[in-house]
Amino acid sequence: MRVSRRFRDIACSAHSLWASHVLAPLLVEPSESMTRNELKDHERRVISQVSTLVERSKSELLSLQLPYGISDYRVRNLVGGLLPSLVTRSRSITTALGHSPFAVGSFWAFLKVTGTPTVRTLSVSSSRPSGCYEANQLTFPFESSTPPQKIDLPCLRNLALVNVLPPCPFPGLRSLSISFDNFSSIPSKDFIIYLRSTPQLTRLVLYQCLLVTKDAVQLQPVELPHLKHVELTCGPTLCAFFLERVHFPAAAVFIWNDTRETYQHGNDVTRMADTLREHLDSPHQHRYGAFLRISDNAYPIPSDDLYNKTWSSWSHGPHVTIALYRDMDKRLVTDVQEEDNLTVRLDFKGYRDVVFLANRLSHLVQPSCISALTIATMDNLANVFFGKHASDIIHSFPALTDFAWLNLTTPENLAQVVRAVLDPSMMPLLRSLRIRELGQRVRNQWRTNPSVVALCEGLRERREAGCPLDYVPCIDTVISLKNGYDKTMYRRGVPMAHGELLDKLRGMLDDAQGTN
Question: What are the extents of the domains in the chain?
Answer without folding.
Answer: 282-516
